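Q: My labmate handed me this sequence with no annotations at all. I'd like to see what the chain might look like in three dimensions before we decide whether it's worth expressing. Could you predict it?
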Amino acid sequence: MLCLIGGGVWAQNDKQPVRRNVVVRQWKVKNGKQTRQLDHQSTFDSLGRKVEEIEYASYGQKERIVTEYEGNTKRISREVVYDDKDKVRRIRKYEYNANGTKKKQYNYKPDGKLSSTKEYEYSYK
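A: Here is what I predict for the chain of 125 residues:
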């Protein structure tokens, strides 16, 4: 199934929808109300990768995350998290295992100093 949304293509496959060159908006609609409020907006590039996600509150932007990838891969190299005033709140960088799964996440403060790390562990059955 293919659907045109905002000038882009949304291809439905067996696993997960592939969104290319599209902006997807999610709206909150309260029961019995005619009005709706923007909740999230996600932007996808020509390779179907999410490059920006914005979360909204009643006052406007709550948080924005800009994602960068390693070349034309699906591996995230860096995510920059912005606050409601569009100032950098933190930067996340990733390290991967040989099989492509995430190994470590490095969390940096806006000044570039490392604040914490997160390690990923996988158990296969």
